Amino acid sequence: MNNFDKYWDNIHLKYNSTYDGWLNKYINLINKNDVIIELGCGRAYCSNYLLKNNFKNITACDFSSKALDIVNKENPNLETMMLDMSLGLPFKDSSTNIIIADLCLHYFDYVTTNYIIDEIYRVLKPNGYLIARVNSANDKLHIPIGAKELEKNLFYDGQIYKKFFDKTDLNTLFKKFKICYMQEENMSRYEKTKILWEFCLRK
Length: 203
Ligand SMILES: C[S@@+](CC[C@H](N)C(=O)[O-])C[C@H]1O[C@@H](n2cnc3c(N)ncnc32)[C@H](O)[C@@H]1O
What we know:
Mean pLDDT: 95
CATH architecture of the domain at 115-203: 3-Layer(aba) Sandwich
CATH class of the domain at 115-203: Alpha Beta
Shape: globular
Order of helices and strands: HEHEHEEHEEEEHEE
Helix content: 10-25%
Number of helices: 5
Low-confidence stretches: none
CATH superfamily of the domain at 115-203: Vaccinia Virus protein VP39
Bound molecules: S-adenosylmethionine
Structural class: alpha/beta
């Protein structure tokens, strides 16, 4: 039994962050009645942004009970769900218009990542969108110090796994999706600039 959720409980109790506006450019793709799921929501900045823009049908999901406690307290109008995405997504086939996954799909080995992506594909409606950001393999500053590389670009520091993606990984893992946008970007939300892949994919 791992304790990855407890690791994240501690992080969420200690640190705060902010919404950096990355989702704004996709808002026109989303209809007001769309079913929206945010995976690995943490403090749910993305869901809050959508809630403030009058999207109603949002479920913010995470496996950290502490993160969800904070979200529920701060945003009683936002629906939340505790789930561990590595165990699958408890949603029906073709039930969701939009899945948002900001900086949460890069904590798994290749097999588990592949499984989660299959689950996302299953749950999305035809023409539904996955809008996400993940670690780039060029983000050398965020490889945990002293971590072991267990498989290509997957590091383990004794606490959590961190995976870093190159373009070939993304093309392989998301091959069933149509790419609407895929770009390597710099993010300045953290202390050190982070290099990540941002993408918007359609089923
Ligand atoms: C770097 S944080 C990002 C949080 C939020 N999306 C943001 O950008 O502010 C990663 C999040 O993924 C969540 N997470 C990690 N592994 C998960 C899993 N197996 N199932 C569900 N959530 C998970 C963590 O609890 C954490 O909230």
